[in-house]
């Protein structure tokens, strides 16, 4: 789609000039590539190379996304090459490699390899050194010695409280979520698992299938958590991986399988479903109630 907003085009050209990617004396072809929570533009440079510019409304959001991309890259995870960030007034521009997407052989194997590289990175504490974002919502972090404290205080509880303020959750829903979390955290011994680096927002839309056969992860919200959090989120809207492949990824990371992974997926989906309730409203309450019924809540 051709860009019709002249001001946005000039803003992007200004940002590219500041990054040293495009001289102010040169022109670039800029098109709106996609839009969901944020606008993404494709830029074709005079030498015919292409890059992507993401328009982000908060400086902190752009900085933590850039940090996440660099962190994943250091750990052997395939991501678009990060080219720099420019803060311009009320918005920030995040520049990265443009990934040509399309059907290709090798995609699944490349994704599996990236996730195996990611989850072999253990740490002594749960959490992350700074707050970041999940979609456009703040995601608090910090360091915790136990899974249960970290995941309740920094993942489930903030989303529950936000949904209650917005009159989207009942007290019964909130109590049911807490009961499920307490019971299965204990039953599955989640406090005895070593924290691993996770992508943190790994739904299928954040996995790009490159025409070159590679799988690129985008929009990270990193933390040291449990890899099943990522794999369950990947299942939420249609995963490219099957259950056997997910179990292989976990086994390679040295994680035991207490019980059936299939039975735990919906436990981990509580967090992204709550996030979607807060981002998009009551239409996602059906998904939440489905999870509650799955674990015996009437």
Features:
2 domains; kinase activity; 5-stranded antiparallel sheet; Phosphorylase Kinase, domain 1; Fructosamine kinase; alpha+beta; transferase; 43% helix; Aminoglycoside 3'-phosphotransferase, Chain: A, domain 2; 298 residues; 13 strands; two-stranded antiparallel ribbon
Walk me through this protein's architecture.
The chain is α+β, with helices and mostly antiparallel strands and 298 residues long. It has 2 domains: 6-97, Phosphorylase Kinase, domain 1 (2-Layer Sandwich); 107-294, Aminoglycoside 3'-phosphotransferase, Chain: A, domain 2 (Alpha-Beta Complex), CATH 3.90.1200. It is built from 9 helices and 13 strands. The chain has helices at 6-19, 59-74, 107-119, 147-165, 171-187, 227-236, 243-252, 261-280, 285-294; strands at residues 29-35, 39-44, 50-56, 82-88, 91-97, 126-128, 132-134, 137-139, 142-144, 196-198, 207-209, 215-217, 223-225. The chain has a 5-stranded antiparallel β-sheet with strand order 1-2-3-5-4, with helices on both faces. A two-stranded antiparallel sheet has the order 6-9. Strand 11 and strand 12 (215-217) form a beta hairpin. Helix 8 (261-280) runs antiparallel to helix 9. The relative contact order is 0.13.
CATH class of the largest domain: Alpha Beta
The count of DSSP E runs of length 2 or more, i.e. the number of strands, is 13
CATH topology of the largest domain: Aminoglycoside 3'-phosphotransferase, Chain: A, domain 2
| Order of strands across the main sheet | 1-2-3-5-4
Family: Belongs to the fructosamine kinase family.
Organism: Leptospira andrefontaineae
InterPro entries: Fructo-/Ketosamine-3-kinase, Kinase-like_dom_sf
Protein name: Fructosamine kinase
